[in-house]
Design goal:
Elements lengths: L9 H13 L18 H15 L6 H8 L6 H10 L7 H27 L6 H16 L10 H17 L10 H6 L9 E6 L5 H13 L4 E5 L4 H13 L3 H5 L9 H14 L4 E4 L6 H14 L4 E5 L12 H19 L2 E7 L22 H5 L2 E6 L13 E9 L5 E8 L4 E4 L21
Parallel strand pairs: 1-5, 1-6, 2-3, 2-4, 4-5
Antiparallel strand pairs: 6-7, 7-8, 8-9
Helix pairs in contact: 1-2, 1-4, 1-5, 3-4, 5-6, 9-10, 10-12, 13-14
């Protein structure tokens, strides 16, 4: 015999309302419950008013609720009295809240299915339809769980363990592989954080992000999501950097009509180095946050994961809002959640707006971040890349990339210089202390310790 299934449980809603009326303090045990979880309209009004009064510091009972809702709920006092009399205590309020939330989520799933059926009949592509459903499911999966605040002194027990693990090296930052930059970042990138790497086109964003991913993957595990370039081009860049081979030759290795033994030897060496890398690459474009999280979680579960690099922000899809700045905010908050959930570092590559092109000094500043202030707000660290030779072909700093730390939540701002080999799409540390030529002459022969 088939059991009848219901998408709502009004009796559980009555039980929560009644429990709160007889025990206002019970609201602390149902922090995840929200008015929108209630199916019954009157119960939703009751719960909203109870929340409001308790937040205002008032004691709540049937009369105080009646005085506010008597014009909105038919037979308000009689209904409240009946609800209160049907509840003996607030002991099971947490369980009742769980039932209400469970039913609410299931109703939302049904609604998503109905909306999905409607959207597939429109002229939108199947990809857009999938993104729509995925974004709805992503929001639904982000169920907020409240934790109880702790007194500072009570946290110190676990904090001592953290300090001991840091001292022993069990907990340590993720090194970028560039010694000067790691020094400025306090040893590297912290887990559970988002690092934004921003620059104008041709500055080397992808080369930098891919370079960090390679460096991390020698000892750890890195995932590079290339939404801008196909995997063949990512392979070109990796082999060019590992073998120190001109990427132009890789694109046309038979250009001279003769066998270039030296370059082929370097390619063979690059293949041998590639075997040592725990580097994963995915070139699917137009990923939404649900897909990004699933890909990262799969690599983490099967192999392990320390770093996720996303190239780049403008290719992410599936936001709930059609407003660009709000969509970007959704993405950055979701990436921060992924970083914390998986205990990894996330590097997000993004493009700067064109405003800096109008300035005499075209070095990036925080206001040049394109699309949204959420980038500045949510990122733990913001790094700008600047190569003076892009704007000044005769620059004395030719071949040098300024890595500008514009924001560092757990450290100071500053800059370092890296040598950039454009034909090999790779970066490496400078062998000398460096400052931009327009501010101070280069001092050669001094070890880099910015």
């Amino acid at each position: 015999m088939k059991t009848e299934f219901s998408l709502h449980e009004v009796q559980a809603e009555f039980s929560v309302i009644g429990a709160l009326i007889i025990d206002n303090d019970a609201i602390d045990r149902i922090a995840d419950l929200a008015p929108e979880h209630f199916y019954n309209h009157e119960n939703r009004l009751f719960f909203t008013e109870i929340q409001r009064q308790i937040a205002a510091g008032s004691r709540v009972d049937s009369i105080t609720i009646f005085n506010k809702l008597k014009n909105d709920v038919t037979d308000c006092l009689q209904l409240l009295t009946s609800i209160t009399n049907s509840v003996g205590s607030s002991a099971n309020i947490s369980r009742y809240a769980e039932i209400i939330i469970d039913k609410s989520i299931k109703r939302s799933l049904v609604e998503i299915c109905r909306e999905s059926e409607g959207i597939v009949t429109t002229g939108k592509s199947s990809g857009d339809c999938v993104d729509f459903v995925a974004s709805k499911l992503e929001v639904l999966s982000q169920r907020k769980t409240e934790q109880e605040p702790q007194k500072f002194i009570d946290m110190l027990g676990s904090y001592v363990s953290t300090l001991e693990d840091r001292m022993s090296g069990k907990i340590k930052p993720i090194k970028t592989g560039f010694s000067d930059l790691d020094k400025n970042l306090g040893g590297g990138i912290d887990r559970g954080t988002v690092v934004v790497v921003a620059a104008r086109p041709a500055m080397g964003k992808t080369a930098f992000g891919l370079g960090v991913a390679r460096n991390v993957s020698y000892e750890g595990y890195a995932l590079f999501l290339s939404m801008e370039m196909p995997k063949e081009q990512v392979c070109d860049r990796n082999i060019a950097a590992l073998g120190k081979v001109d990427i132009g030759w890789l694109k046309n290795p038979s250009q001279n009509g003769q066998l270039d033994t030296k370059n082929w030897d370097e390619v063979t060496s690059a293949f041998a180095q590639a075997e040592k890398l725990n580097l994963f690459i995915d070139d699917q474009t137009g990923l939404n946050m649900l897909s990004i999280r699933n890909k990262a979680r799969k690599v983490k579960r099967k192999q392990g994961l320390d770093l996720l690099v996303i190239d780049q922000l403008s290719f992410i899809t599936g936001a709930n809002s059609e407003k660009l700045h709000e969509a970007v905010g959704e993405y950055t908050r979701a990436l921060l959640k992924i970083a914390k959930e998986l205990n990894i570092a996330v590097i997000l590559l993004c493009q700067l707006n064109r405003e800096l092109e109008k300035r005499p000094n075209k070095r990036p500043i925080m206001s040049d971040l394109a699309l949204s202030g959420s980038i500045e707000q949510d990122a733990n660290t913001i790094i700008f890349l600047y190569r003076d030779e892009v704007y000044n072909p005769d620059s004395p700093d030719k071949g040098i990339c300024e890595v500008i730390i514009g924001k560092q939540r757990q450290g100071s701002i500053g800059f370092v210089g890296l040598k950039y080999f454009g034909e090999q799409t790779r970066f490496e540390d400078l062998a000398y202390r460096w400052t931009p030529s327009q501010n101070e002459p280069k001092r050669r022969g001094i070890s880099a310790n910015l």
